[in-house]
Amino acid sequence: MAVFLENDHLVATIKEHGAELASLRSKETGLEYIWAGDAKYWGRQAPVLFPIVGRLKDDQYQVAGKTYHLGQHGFARDRDFAIREQTATKVVLELKADEASKELYPFDFCLQLSYELTASGLVVGYRVDNPSQEPIYFGIGGHPAFKTPLTPK
Fold first, then answer.
1. Cβ distance 110 to 92 under 8 Å?
2. Cα gap 5→11, rounded to integer Å
3. Is the full-model pTM beyond 0.85?
């Protein structure tokens, strides 16, 4: 499923799967800013990188003597997020730790991404909450791919 945001200037599409920005288009010019994705080159558009950015040696790490396997850029980009808040111009999507995530990353977390259209663009926010008393370790990032050349249709 996807979420559609719109204001007087822009239209945005955000996938619930991975909380990934799929489209950002100017209503005035028709200009699309986000790469459409092509599996031949790179099928993603703007994946969320969590709980790591990059790759681990041998895709593994240890916590408290136990070895965990975690692929490049983590798992958030491959999970379905829940909608926590939505208006015409803003959405907040959320991913919480569960049994599947704890097989890869043994920490409790609540990850929220927000997307909000403004008169001049799109504001993207990242929030990671730790509901436990134990420290958690993570990296977070965005990996947007922009359409080029930036010319109207």
1. no
2. 6
3. yes
The two three-digit tokens of residue 67, written as one number:
């070895």
Question: How far is the C-alpha of 118 from the C-alpha of 139, rounded, in Å?
Answer: 27
**Closest listed residue to residue 50, CA positions, set 21, 70, 31, 28:** 70
Residue type, 1: M
**51-76 pLDDT tens trace:** 999 999 999 999 999 999 999 999 99
Compute the mean pLDDT over every residue in the chain, rounded to the nearest whole number. Answer: 95
b/e map 81-106, b = 16+ CB within 10 Å: beeeeeeebbbbbbbebeeebeeebe
Residues of the chain with pLDDT > 90: what percent? 86
Tokens 């420290």 belong to residue? 135
Question: What would the DSSP string read from start to end of 12-81?
Answer: EEEESBTT-EEEEEETTT--B-B---BTTTB--SS-EEBS-SS--GGGEEEETTEEEE--TTBSGGGSBP
